Amino acid sequence: KMAADTSVDILQKVLENEILQSTKVVEEHLDAEIQKLDQMDEDELERLKQRRLEALKKSQQQKQEWLSKGHGEYREIPSERDFFQEVKESKNVVCHFYRDTTFRCQILDKHLTVLAKKHIETKFLKLNAEKSPFLCERLRIKVIPTLALIKDGKTQDYVVGFTDLGNTDDFTTETLEWRLGCADVINYSGNLMEPPFQSQKKYGTSFTKLDKKTIRGKIYDSDSDDD
């Protein structure tokens, strides 16, 4: 009986040992797998981190380059000659042709100051129309205010008066931002198919053509009806 008990004990110990061994093997195997996965993840994370850092570095360099070219603030340029130089060195430019006596130019100034800070990928300028007759003639600017929207040195689009902005002096900065987004002259993150003023029924889609009133070559204010 004792011998039998001993053999049972031995068997049990052997069995326990086997189980322990196999568990150890399984655990070691699992450890190795986990380590391998961890290792792979670390490599992947490292690569990801490197890519992210490179992208950040690139975007920082791009930002610095834009700032060095006068982006990030809404600036007045003194002459037509400056206009050509400014436009040549930047991919996206918004230039406001204004006149001191035109009230609507001051409204645009307020919104453009905000957008210049927000969209540093684009250069925002203003130029006195009375000091730039050659440019006004060449760009066919008849109504003040007019925004010339320039991409790669070429004038692609114009915002003439406030017709495209809901035909009101009370348009929002978001509305102007949307309009510039339509011309692809800023990086616009909203939905181009939904103008911010669309919900305001009183403007509807039947914009009047008041702003288009011109007489041969003379520049008019879009906020005066007595010319």
UniProtKB/TrEMBL annotation:
Subunit description: Forms ternary complexes with the chaperonin TCP1 complex, spanning the cylindrical chaperonin cavity and contacting at least 2 subunits.
Q: Does the keyword Cell wall biogenesis/degradation apply?
A: no
UniProtKB keywords: Cytoplasm, Cytoskeleton, Nucleus, Phosphoprotein
Which protein are we looking at?
Thioredoxin domain-containing protein 9
The protein's location, in the record's own words, is: Cytoplasm, Cytoskeleton, Microtubule organizing center, Centrosome; Midbody; Nucleus
Q: What is the lineage of its organism?
A: Eukaryota, Metazoa, Chordata, Craniata, Vertebrata
Q: What is its main location?
A: cytoplasm
Q: What is the documented function of this protein? A: Significantly diminishes the chaperonin TCP1 complex ATPase activity, thus negatively impacts protein folding, including that of actin or tubulin.
Q: Which InterPro entries match?
A: Thioredoxin-like_sf, Thioredoxin_domain
